[in-house]
Amino acid sequence: MYTGNFSNQVAIVTGAGQGIGFEIARQLCINGASVILNDIDEELAKTAVSKISEHADCIALGGDASDPVFIQKMVDVAVKHFGSLTIAVANAGITLFGDFFDYKLEALQKVMNLNINGSFLLTQAAARQMRQQESGGSVLLMSSVTGHQAHKNLAAYGITKAALEMLAKTLVLELSPFNISINAIAPGATITERTSEDENYMAIWSRITPMGKPATVEDIANAALFMVSPASRHITGQSLIIDGGWTSVSPSPY
Q: 65: Cβ–Cβ under 8 A, 6 or more apart, which residues?
């Protein structure tokens, strides 16, 4: 687990009811941050907070992380309860597999709306608050190895993740004058509640990952916390791949 001092830090983590987002929120709390933990499933968010709230102040907010009104609500709640906002982690996203030739417009719009629009609008709302505070902050976007390498049936998802990395690079020009860093991390295969539903997932990705196994959520959260910590303050506009070497060779799981 990443160990650092996040005292007096206030974070929003979206899509954090389980999986990578939950572990990021948990580690932030353990290391002293106050956290707004979001999930579209309000009960899941509340359950997640009940597991970690003994470590620090943590508030569950159920809602759609692509809705601009709800996004502003998250920022407002953070400021009202904790006095400021210094970290925003745009983790919420959706993966909808589908053959390109038959991919439906509805599915495309869902993926684009949450993965791109939600991340863009959270970054915007958080950065406005950080600029107003005049104390800087950190934004972290959740990319994927599919934004770097082709993956069958994930064309829509892959282009959203590549777009987020370009967003991080582009916003360096606009956020740096206010001492706000923005970066992305790109996880590869990771064992989560969702991927564990596939009984072959561990065996397949262990075979094709050079390091011999997929990541754990702790592996991804360790990198995430570093990227939003004071230790990485001079790193901005970058994308960090966490995939056990998979993108270096990129064998297909099919």
A: 14, 15, 38, 40, 71, 90, 92, 114, 118, 122
